[in-house]
Design brief:
Layout (H helix, E strand, L loop, with lengths): L7 H11 L1 H6 L2 H8 L3 H10 L1
Length: 49
């Protein structure tokens, strides 16, 4: 997963594809931190998908 060239949506989708269990089990704050986005940004991203 390339965090430098991908935007937040691409990073989130790649994480979902590679490790869906992590996204399901971890709190949003940790997932957002891993993706280098805010919790609010993660929430918006999830609602768009």
């Amino acid at each position: 997963m390339s965090f430098i060239t991908n935007d937040a949506t691409e990073r989130y989708l790649a994480l979902l594809k590679e490790n869906p269990e992590i996204v399901r089990r971890l709190p949003n704050r940790l997932v957002a931190n891993y993706l280098n986005i805010t919790q609010e940004g993660l929430s918006r991203l999830k609602s768009k998908l």
